[in-house]
Write a structure and sequence with these properties.
With 358 residues, the chain is α/β, with parallel strands linked by helices. It contains 13 helices and 10 strands.
Length: 358
């Protein structure tokens, strides 16, 4: 599948830049797939105003692929069906992104499954290529891009990602069927590497940058990345977000994204209030993502918000030892009290019964 095979409205959504939450996995108390609540999450995200939803990434848990659990196909199928059904109901197209992991042969099978289930794009973790040569990784992405339009993915090393230098990204952006890159190293040097590779390739009008840096979301959006001598410098911008943090408080994320795109497109000045908001978002992310314990509580942290709101029955994951870290619940209490303007609790309360029983 090439990008030219996709509906133009879907391509337009990704090109403009949009909010794409990385959906968590809904489980019941027996750690079994909770289809009802997974569908409710899809309805929540769409009503919140997102332009796309990513399924099968870190927050959906890489363990869904484990033999004996075998949830990759069921989870992707349920999410795809619900996104299609609900997007038709609300009269608005939603881009569907499927996450792939593992070595090339394994990831290609996942890509084939995703394409058959109607996903528009894929995004691949490179964690399985630790110690590999760059050419192996570029080949991996090139093979996946033959099956489905792809996002590149710079994953945080703290949750399994690997260091990916400028030279890797410079080759990656030459692959024809790459449509976007999620930049999530939680590292300014790595973020600049990706932006510079895109500028140097001259493909900034074909490949859209998405932040995954949950610790610097707002900063990424307000930064014009400019490279080269003054007389011929190229500017690229991060236009969208594909984020675990945006899997909760999603209505506020959509409002923030629209505000930031307006600033980027109009050249409005950056106010001190906006920089304060940036710091508040980072503080809230620290409570949810648990960097104090090397991100051990990142999935339970986001699940905790969704559980408190009633969207998830609990915060369980497929790994029994994956729980909130010591003191994390108290940190979540603190940021919720300090920054009520970052939450969308009232929006969820108003619509929860409809999402759960629709």
């Amino acid at each position: 599948m090439n990008r030219t095979d996709l509906p133009q409205p879907i391509l337009d959504i990704v090109r403009r830049g949009t909010v794409i939450p990385a959906t968590p996995l809904a489980l019941n108390a027996h750690r079994q797939f909770d289809e009802r609540r997974q569908r409710a999450l899809m309805r929540y995200y769409i009503d919140a105003g997102v332009g796309g939803i990513a399924v099968g990434m870190h927050f959906t848990q890489f363990e869904i692929r484990t033999p004996g659990i075998d949830l990759f196909e069921p989870v992707l199928r349920v999410c795809s069906e619900e996104i299609d059904s609900y997007s038709k109901k609300v009269g608005r197209p939603i881009a569907k992104i499927a996450g792939f992991s593992g070595q090339t042969a394994t990831a290609l099978k996942q890509a084939e499954t995703a394409r058959k289930l109607g996903y528009h794009f894929g995004i691949a973790s490179m964690a399985a290529f630790r110690g590999a040569m760059e050419q192996e990784m570029v080949h991996h992405m090139r093979e996946l891009a033959k099956i489905i339009p792809m996002f590149g993915f710079y994953l945080l090393t703290g949750v399994g990602g690997i260091k990916l230098p400028y030279t890797f990204w410079r080759e990656l952006v030459e692959i024809e069927n790459i449509v976007g890159i999620k930049i999530a190293p939680f590292d300014r040097y790595g973020t600049v590497d990706v932006a510079r590779a895109l500028a140097d390739a001259g493909r900034e009008n074909e490949i859209t940058l998405y932040t995954g840096n949950d610790d610097s979301i707002l900063y990424d959006f307000i930064t014009p990345f400019r490279f080269g001598p003054p007389e011929s410098a190229k500017t690229v911008r991060i236009r969208g977000g594909l984020l675990g943090q945006w899997a909760c408080w999603t209505q506020r994320a959509v409002e923030l994204h629209e505000r930031l795109l307006k600033i980027a497109d109009s050249g409005e000045p950056i106010t001190p209030e906006l920089l304060t908001l940036s710091a508040q978002i980072t503080d809230a992310n620290a409570a949810l993502f648990d960097p104090a314990h090397n991100y051990a509580g990142s999935i339970p942290g986001v699940n905790e918000i969704l559980h408190r709101q009633g969207l998830l029955e609990g915060i369980w994951t497929l790994k029994r030892d994956e729980v909130l870290s010591p003191g994390q619940a108290e940190e979540i209490d603190r940021v919720c009290a300090a920054y009520p303007h970052l939450t969308d609790d009232a929006f969820v309360r108003k619509n929860l019964d409809r999402w759960l029983n629709g």
